[in-house]
């Protein structure tokens, strides 16, 4: 129903006109109560949508701030490393060649020792923000790899290339997908394929010997 004009409302209240959506045997009072209830429901829904929009904006703002903090920390670390690296290059370029005589060779030796000490300091620089970001990226990439494996395995089973029961196929897929929950804290050795290669070699050997089928 479109919004009533003042004249239409006056005519409705005086019984001179009837709204199109007036129900059979519905009194004017019942009609108004129903329309007010519908309006309140719409207002409530709009209020909820508005609140959800505000929450979404807050979450997005928090995510942007967190990302800004991470990248700012990484930028500061990288700027520090670049500055230190530039100084090392300057020190290297300032070395006096091979030197001449005992004094020249002694100067070169001292400069070389200083440069090696500086290189050790450079190697000892900590970059926690950069390391954390790279670890996060690596973990997400590994998770996507697990999703890929589960998808390929189930697709192969559905196509009939894997001869096994539906329960076993589902159990294996769930095991692969569940593994993503432990990836962040798993040791690097768990991501090396050498273990799988070793087990596959053992299985192949047992198949050749007829121990298993």
TrEMBL record:
What superkingdom heads the lineage?
Answer: Bacteria
Protein name from the UniProt record = Eae-like protein
């Amino acid at each position: 129903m479109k919004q009533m004009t003042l004249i239409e409302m006056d005519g409705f209240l005086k019984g001179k006109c009837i709204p199109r959506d007036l129900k059979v045997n519905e009194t004017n009072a019942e009609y108004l109560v129903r329309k007010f209830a519908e309006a309140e429901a719409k207002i409530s829904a709009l209020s909820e949508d508005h609140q959800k929009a505000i929450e979404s904006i807050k979450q997005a703002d928090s995510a942007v701030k967190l990302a800004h903090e991470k990248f700012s920390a990484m930028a500061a670390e990288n700027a520090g490393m670049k500055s230190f690296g530039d100084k090392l290059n300057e020190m290297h370029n300032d070395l006096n060649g091979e030197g001449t005589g005992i004094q020249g060779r002694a100067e070169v030796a001292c400069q070389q020792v200083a440069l090696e000490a500086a290189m050790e300091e450079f190697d000892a620089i900590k970059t926690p923000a950069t390391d954390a970001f790279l670890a996060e990226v690596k973990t997400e990439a590994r998770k996507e790899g697990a999703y890929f494996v589960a998808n390929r395995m189930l697709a192969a089973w559905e196509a009939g290339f894997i001869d096994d029961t539906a329960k076993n196929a589902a159990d294996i897929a769930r095991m692969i997908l569940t593994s993503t929950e432990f990836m962040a804290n798993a040791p690097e050795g768990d991501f090396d394929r050498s273990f799988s290669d070793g087990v596959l070699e053992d299985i192949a050997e047992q198949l050749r010997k007829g121990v298993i089928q």
